User: Fold this.
Amino acid sequence: MAFEADGQNDLTVSAGTYSVTEPAVSGYTTTYNNCSNLVIPNGGEATCTITNNDQAATLIVIKVAALASVISRPQRRPLTCTTAIL
Assistant:
């Protein structure tokens, strides 16, 4: 079932015990709050909260200098990296 535009779905269910999960998505860590073994009596209700947090990315920059340029100009040169979210 897809979530509604507001990110919340209200469902009518029969009395019983329920657990709510969603498929894992690459790049996100999912946490559940009050989503396992929910006992819903007749006329009762419960709220399950699922949170998807994005996982931090890693960028590795390797600078390679030719040996001749290091010998002739041994000074340190600054390396600047600029990133943008696309």
The mean pLDDT is 83. The beta strands are 16-18, 28-33, 38-40, 49-54. DSSP finds one helix and four strands in the chain.
